[in-house]
Amino acid sequence: MSDAERLDGILAMLRERGGRLTTARRAIITALVGSRSHVTADELSATVRAAHPDVHLTTIYRCLDTLEEIGVVDHVHLGHGRAVYHLNDEIHQHLVCERCQAVVEVPDSLFDDLAARVKGRYGFTIRPHHFAVLGRCAACQ
Fold first, then answer.
1. 52 assigned to some structural domain
2. What angle do CA 110, 112, 117 make, to 5 degrees?
3. Do residues 52 and 108 touch, judged by C-beta distance below 8 A?
């Protein structure tokens, strides 16, 4: 899928979920489509403000919060650093190497058994997309 097709799909998702398509939201989503990786709010702000200097950092944070509530954007904590953001159109989980900081994206289904066991035993529904599993990658073991 091309970036333009992905952007159109995400903007359609935003509209379907009742979100307004503002200049700031379009700029954020466009920057996330073009990022090819997980980005912090500050990195996202730099990209957005390069094209739209009138979009302030506080607006970007408010938009990210709203886009996350709508389910278009998600954030995750990849270890001890700042939260990073990514689009929610390709759901995945994260494994992070404690030594080299490599991030491995894994299918959402990887945590299905764990989620079922936690739900059955504790009555608790987990949201594994919000965190990363820390460990050592094959190269660092």
1. yes
2. 130
3. no
Q: What is the pTM of this model?
A: 0.79
| Domain contains 141 | no
Query: 140 lies in a domain?
Result: no
18 is written with which tokens?
A: 């009742």
**Amino acid type, 31:** A
In angstroms, the Cα distances linking 97 to 11, 43, 56, 93 are: 33, 22, 34, 14
Residue with tokens 């097709």: 5
| Structural domain boundaries, residue 109 | 92-135
Per-residue pLDDT reduced to its tens digit, 108-129: 889 899 999 999 999 999 877 7
Is the same domain home to 61 and 27?
yes
83 and 97 share one domain: no
CA distances from 81 to 54, 67, 77, 119, 131 (A): 28, 22, 7, 29, 12
For 56, 62, 90, the CA distances from 29, given in Å and listed in that order, are: 15, 14, 14
